[in-house]
Sequence to fold (740 residues):
Amino acid sequence: MHRRDLIKNVLIVAGGITVFSACHSPAGKPAVDHLPFTESDEETLRCLAEVIIPATETPGATALQLHVFAITLVRDCYAADEREKYLGGLHAFDTAVNVLYRKRFKDCLETEKAEVLEKMEEDEMGEAVGFFYNKTKSLIIKGYLSSAYVMSELNRYELVPGRFSGYHPVES
Amino acid sequence: MPDRTNKQQRTFDAIVIGSGISGGWAAKELTENGLKTLVLERGRDVKHNVDYPTTNMMPFEFAYRGELTNAVKEANPIASKCYAFREDAFHFFVKDKEHPYIQDKPFDWIRGYQVGGRSLLWARQTQRWSDFDFEGPARDGFAVDWPIRYRDLAPWYSHVERFAGIAGNRDGIPELPDGEFLPAYPLTAVEDYFADIVRKKFRNRYVISGRCAHLSKPAPIHFEQGRVKCMNRTLCQRGCPFGGYFSSNSTTLPWADRTGNMTLRPFSVVQEILYDQQAGRAGGVRVADAETGEVTDYFARIIFVNAGSLNTNLILLNSKSHRFPDGLGNDNGLLGKYIAFHNYSARMYAKYDGLKQYRTDGRTPTSGYIPRFRNVYRQETDFLRGYAATLYAGRVEYRDTKGFGKPLKHKLLKTELGPWQLGSNMMGETIPREQNRVYLDADAVDPWGIPQLRVDIDYDDNDEKMREDYFDQMAEMFEAAGFRDIGREKVDMAPGLDIHEMGGVRMGHDPRTSLLNQWNQLHHCKNVFVTDGACMTSTSTQNPSLTYMAITARAANHAVEELRRGDL
Fold:
């Protein structure tokens, strides 16, 4: 069989500026049947996702339920050993934050959260946390870019293009 | 359903086993010629459009965004190797545990048990064979001589192309004959550039727009089928709401149904073909209901076996009688032997820094295609035969994911265009060998009481040498075009994952060395026709489905003629 599998690469370049965003705890039960994640894990992930993709003039991670997407994929799609490694990383993250600030990530000040994210961006928090952060970030980004909101409002996905050109002019 | 106690109601003019790409064609041709035809399909019914549950889903409507759960992957180590076995289409694949088989050597048997079979899932590439292919075994001394030549099949290629709808250019290449084409899909700027370099710098080498079974510009016959223009979705594996590509479901089966002559019976697992010793011919088939296990016999004057290459072998091997103790038509012991496939175990990559004023827009259902150029006019290498290759080029989009927060959110919506990236897949001919075979296990049976198939198929030295030549020749062509970062990838894949398994019931002149004659009739049981991949004497390099369609239409019309003459 033939496949036109153009590779979508991701290029990492310099950047990244601290941003301050709220992490309000929503009322009610967790949105997913979250085992093996605890409610506390889910809250940590929700807050972390909101720092990665905050609400601005457009919806952020909490509004788009990106942490639920991340949990769903880790829970259902990861192999058992990878899932264990992820959960281990999540708990290492909790511990590391507690050592730094004597509180949980969700209770950190926005400046503290940003500080932690900066450290993880620079891979300064050890291997377990680094694994957890990189996986989480890529899941949150994937969830964001493939969310109904982004695919409908910001970056429209064409289900039915009805056309093809191999000579489309590049706008400069 | 007819009353099964009444034999008359279980008697038809023709029985077709299988509703996939070749079975659909048998059904169409036979019913159009007025034959009351029973089409047996082991899987469930899949009605065009009605049974394509994911076809109009947006990416975000899939819980896993296209991925499979770990449970599905772990339960299906074989099926999940197929690139199309993903969240949007895995319901059209056989799950590993549903139909066990035994691998003497690794063989990934990818199957689709439903009405339409794998015609829902195929890659839709449709290149004709030429006499360089049909004359291969005789010229190069392997397998046996094909009992047909291009001139025998050419009118039937035209017949099926007009009906199916094939997009392509009239390229004027003797190795890859032109057909009845709808307008071709355009290549990309770099695919065209590469085609130009290859034409100028290499003799008898071409890069063309891959001919494909898509309605680029439907003809009246296609509208009559209820199909409209392909809308470039490239979500074909879900089933196409436009009927933009050819499948049994969208095309041949509805057409056959409209004649009023077709009885389609899903959930019908054929255990064996029943040989009528007195009449000296096959009398019918024995069917186990896939859900209840209830066994029923059906009868007909002719039987078309289109169960899919290996399952066709399985049915014939299991059709044992006093006359044929080793399987129907198997006097020479060659049934199940000389299985071959396509060697897909190599890919190449490159980048190109030119033509940056262009990018692609929209999506295309095909790509560039490089017809076989090795050992065509004469033997050039220390391996037999050769390979075709795909060739595709597009701009890669990069996304800066550094950082977090508002700046990241802003950056994510922008992409930067990288250089053109090229890819190519090898499609190598493999040489049918007697030791590459399938046979019945002595003990293990499947859930329907049928012996399990043992598969004993492997690559050989010829395949290894061919792969090295593909790497070298493609690299030379890439270098001539000024491409950089040329990469060679050996793909670790077992036979079978090419999904082009062929042979085991090969055609030939001589009943001592082949199973089928020039009309796809079993030499020793003339009212049984085998016209799926099992009939293939050799594999050549082209994606085989178009050839199965043409062979089927030809054989079906011959069967009708013989019936009319009273010869069957």
In short: Chain B has a mean pLDDT of 97. Chain B touches chain A through 75 residues (CB under 8 Å). The longest helix of chain B spans residues 545-565.
